[in-house]
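Re: the 139-residue chain
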Amino acid sequence: MTTSSDRLLRRTLWGNAAFSVLSGAMLVAFAEPFARFAAHGPVSVAGLDLAILFELLGVGVVAFGGLCAWVASRAELPRGLARFIFAADIAWVAASALVLALPASWTTAGVVGIVVVALIVADFVILEYLGLRRLHTAA
């Protein structure tokens, strides 16, 4: 694999890592205020308060960002893990649409937050797809 064939995917993964770590850390640090702004009244899912769910989600997103950084930093990109990241990002966008479709008491700020993050992740999906395609073509 040549540097030119993996450059797009590598840079996209670094961007995904930075976005994931920063947004995940913010979600952990500000879970309570985000929960208040995102929903009308207290929301509980499977017996867990929305703020606790945001904290757990934030920890997972930080870990995901770490995986993106690790994959991007390898001398030779692990294609299987790059495909896993691509699939996970698609799942995030689909889950965001599902969350918005379910009956919930989201505020306008909550809906906007979900949509904006889903659109950013969708951009990563497009760039990851193009990067993976370049790798396949170069191989």
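Residues 108-138 form the longest helix (31 residues).
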